[in-house]
Specification:
This protein is of the alpha+beta class and about 650 residues long. The chain folds into five domains: about 170 residues, no CATH class; about 130 residues, no CATH class; about 90 residues, 2-Layer Sandwich (Alpha-Beta Plaits), CATH 3.30.70; about 80 residues, Ribosomal Protein S8, Chain: A, domain 1, CATH 3.30.1370.50; about 90 residues, Hypothetical Protein Yqey, Chain: A, domain1, CATH 1.10.1510. The protein is built from 19 helices and 19 strands. Strands 2, 3, 7, 8, 9, 10, 11, 18 and 19 form a nine-stranded mixed beta sheet that branches. A hairpin with a 2-residue loop joins strand 5 and strand 6. Helix 7 crosses helix 18. The longest helix has 27 residues.
Length: about 650
């Protein structure tokens, strides 16, 4: 195990002249923080019912609830609404080589030609068997399947049967081995999904370029896991059969790479066509799958509507963002949208070893949930404590709540760790990392509030200025399956980069853009001036700065994150339009279908700002937007702003 000392440039760790809080303004800090040094905000759930007005979203998590309180520069903000429509937010992945993910075609790759002529293959199949197989293809045939004994038959004979079945529409074939010998079952496809990966197609994938089919996934108003769960359900695959480099939020139009092993592109295309808002294409084959985190970042194209300020005011704010950047907070998406049950609260319970509380929070009823079946299931469990009855109300068994309810029915209430083990490791990591992010936001806000925007003695920077940030890491046991190895990061895979503690002589050589702050864990080095902050904050939750636990599944190593992020290739333009719901940016599928693109209408009734920029992975575009808007980016605040702008329309009921 690498010691903390091995990770620090000891020659710079002079602590004698660290700035003292008493030497700076404490009043500014205390205006943001209560309970000693920090303030945590809690909401009372509003259970009032009834139809919501057009721009009403209910009680949502706000920035101050998760430690987002400071701004980097003092330019004046301008008005603008984020995500008034989901079509206002477009995201494209950027690969490590700089390539931007984009759906440009839905063409299928060329089919592999069989090495032998079909007539020669058929010569290996007796005429009686050929007639049986042909009979299955007749729509009104009463025969649904046939079994062919191939125990004593050659490999060529067995292959010929599979090839013949493959060439006939709506038939699938499988080889089965039992005590009596080897049988090939040829059957009709009951539904399209029956043509799953379990079909025995005898494809030599190496001739296509590799075992893994890589494709572009373009989705509209749907999160990544929901999209892949729907495709996998259609194909009768496990959801973790798919690999991806990163997840994308629901309320947007997003484009990313996905890979899956030994699945034909035409089946993937057919599966996507069965789901509204899902589009796939740009198929290719590769010898390796995609791996989580193997991204350079994301390219964002964002529409801010309801803009009323002058072009000059907007220009000043955007230039400040371009030249200076923004505080690299973890955005609200990191913590969920529900004010009274944010994801970091579940993460805290897990780190505390409070398993029952974590389960309770996951299943607890919540305000403004849109999935009616899930609402009903939560209510039933909350009122009766009957996991089986609650589970029966769900129509999606891949949901976290379904897995928890099923495990509760199996294990009961007295084995909560077994119940939580039913949840995927990546989901557990999501909760744990949310808590780390919550702490990071709070500490960074205090750092800027107390010490300002210049480097100080005790700040951390990477010892190697060219270090690529490791997004986050965790100490876990071995993955449960080979597939999971490809979709999770473990601490075994990497060590944290070495860091340098700034001393007086260093201050003129660095800017705040180079300063990093740790997410808590046993591997990280803490800034000497901030160690007491971490201890205080974590201590009030009954935790220590190493975040170690007896159950290593919930032990965190920590990581480093830059305090300031500067967007790359930032551009912006002001447009005008006349229809309030007009799409102002063409999506990938619009371009594929050659839909006429938007053109600004000088003198139009409405004004919007279109922003394009690239950001590294795990950086939140909404945090860049808050820097120029100087406004809370929560759904509740943005909806209120839309309501105010469209006041005459706000009496409309959805």
């Amino acid at each position: 195990m690498q010691s903390l000392e091995e990770n620090v440039d000891i020659s710079t760790s002079d602590t004698s002249s660290f700035p003292k809080v008493s030497d700076l303004t404490k009043n500014k800090f205390s205006s943001h923080y209560g309970r000693g040094a920090y303030k945590r905000y809690h909401h009372n759930q509003d259970n009032s019912k009834g139809k919501r007005k057009k721009f009403e979203v209910g009680k949502r998590l706000k920035e101050v609830d998760v430690g987002i309180t400071e701004y980097y520069f003092n330019h004046e903000g301008f008005s603008g609404t984020i995500k008034e429509r989901y079509s206002d937010f477009h995201v494209h992945e950027i690969a490590p080589n700089g390539q931007i993910a984009k759906l440009s075609n839905q063409e299928l790759p060329p089919e592999l030609k069989d090495l032998e002529d079909l007539e020669k293959i058929y010569e290996n199949v007796p005429e009686s068997v050929q007639k049986q197989i042909q009979l299955l293809s007749v729509d009104d045939s009463l025969t649904s399947s046939i079994k062919i004994d191939v125990t004593n038959m050659s490999k060529e004979y067995r292959r010929a049967i599979h090839v013949m079945a493959k060439t006939i529409p709506n038939l699938i074939s499988r080889t089965e081995t039992n005590e009596g010998g080897k049988m090939i079952t040829v059957s009709k496809v009951k539904c399209r999904a029956d043509r799953s990966s379990k079909s025995d197609r005898r494809v030599d994938w190496s001739k296509r370029g590799g075992d893994y089919c890589h494709f572009i996934l373009h989705k509209i108003n749907m999160d990544t896991m929901d999209a892949l769960n729907r495709i996998s359900s259609f194909l009768r695959l496990r959801a973790n059969s798919f690999s991806y480099a990163g997840t994308k939020d629901r309320r947007a139009k997003t484009t990313q790479w996905v890979s899956v092993k030994k699945i034909d592109p035409k089946d993937i295309l057919r599966a996507a066509k069965s789901v509204r808002g899902l589009f796939v294409g740009n198929f290719k084959f590769d010898a390796s799958p995609l791996k989580l985190g193997r991204l350079s970042g994301n390219r964002f194209t964002i529409v801010l509507r309801n803009v009323v300020d002058s072009a000059e005011k907007i220009e000043k704010a955007m230039i400040a963002l371009r030249d200076n950047g923004f505080i690299n907070y973890f955005g609200l998406q990191r913590f969920g949208t529900i004010a009274d049950i944010p994801t970091h609260e579940i993460g805290r319970a897990l780190l505390q070893g409070n398993w029952q509380e974590a389960i309770h929070l996951i299943l607890k009823p919540r305000e403004c949930e849109q999935d009616k079946r899930l609402v009903e299931a939560r209510q039933i469990y909350n009122e009766t404590g009957d996991p089986k009855a609650a589970y029966k109300k769900l129509d999606r068994i891949d949901k976290i709540e379904a897995k928890i309810l099923s495990a509760l029915h199996l294990h009961g209430n007295n084995n909560p760790q077994a119940v939580l083990s039913a949840v995927s490791r990546n989901t557990i990591l999501m909760y744990l990392h949310a808590y780390q992010s919550f702490v990071w936001n709070q500490v960074v806000s205090k750092r800027i509030s107390v010490y300002g925007i210049k480097p100080i003695i005790g700040d951390l920077v990477y010892a190697n200025p060219n270090t690529d940030e490791i997004i986050e890491s965790s100490c876990l046991d071995k993955p449960e399956s080979p597939e999971e190895c490809d979709t999770m990061e473990t601490e075994v895979q990497h060590n944290l980069p070495k860091v340098k503690i700034l001393k007086q002589d260093d201050l003129n050589n660095f800017s705040l853009e180079q300063v990093i702050m740790p997410q808590p864990g046993w591997k990280v080095v803490y800034p000497p001036y901030a160690l007491s902050w971490y201890k205080e904050f974590l201590g009030e939750d009954g935790l220590t700065t190493d975040l170690k636990q007896k159950n290593k599944k919930y032990t965190l190593g920590g990581s480093y994150r830059r305090i300031i992020q500067v967007p790359l290739n930032l551009t912006w333009s002001i447009v005008q339009y006349n229809e309030p719901n007009e799409d102002l940016v063409a999506s990938d599928i619009d371009e594929v279908r050659e839909v006429q693109s938007f053109k600004s209408s000088p003198g139009g009734k409405y004004k919007a700002l279109i922003i394009a920029m690239a950001l590294p992975s795990s950086t939140y575009a909404t945090m860049a937007l808050r820097e120029v808007l100087k406004a809370d980016t929560s759904a509740e605040s943005q909806a209120a702003q839309s309501a105010k702008y469209h006041e005459p329309e706000n009496n409309k009921i959805d």
